[in-house]
Amino acid sequence: MSQTYTAIIKQENGWWIGWIEEVPGVNCQEASRVELVESLRITLKEALEFNRQEALGAAGSDYEEENIPV
């Protein structure tokens, strides 16, 4: 399942900075816009996997997974 997220991007003082709107804590700073978008993509992927592993660990062994559209 592919999902799209929103990057908030701006250039400030010679740096490109950005945040992923839907996931707190996913933010990056790079010298170019291209590098920023790639860093945000990598950081988002890592954050989602970390959150998934944390949720599975908290659930233990007897759980169900359900897709919830919003």
Give the topology, please.
Layout: E1 7-12, E2 15-20, E3 27-30, H1 33-59
Antiparallel strand pairs: 1-2, 2-3
Descriptive overview:
The protein has 70 residues and is of the alpha+beta class. The protein has one domain. It is 39% helix and 23% strand. It contains 1 helix and 3 strands, in the order βββα. It has one helix spanning 33-59; strands spanning 7-12, 15-20, 27-30. The longest helix is centred in the middle third of the chain and has 27 residues, at 33-59. The two termini are 14 Å apart.
Q: What brief labels describe this structure?
A:
70 residues; 3 strands; 1 helix; single chain
Task: List low-confidence stretches.
Answer: none
Share of helical residues:
25-40%
Number of domains: 1
Tell me the Rg in angstroms. Answer: 15 Å
Strand line-up of the largest beta sheet: 1-2-3
| Amino-to-carboxy terminus distance | 14 Å
Q: Helix and strand succession?
A: EEEH
Strand content: 15-25%
Major sheet, described briefly? 3 strands, antiparallel
In short:
This protein is of the alpha+beta class. The protein has 1 helix and 3 strands, in the order E-E-E-H.
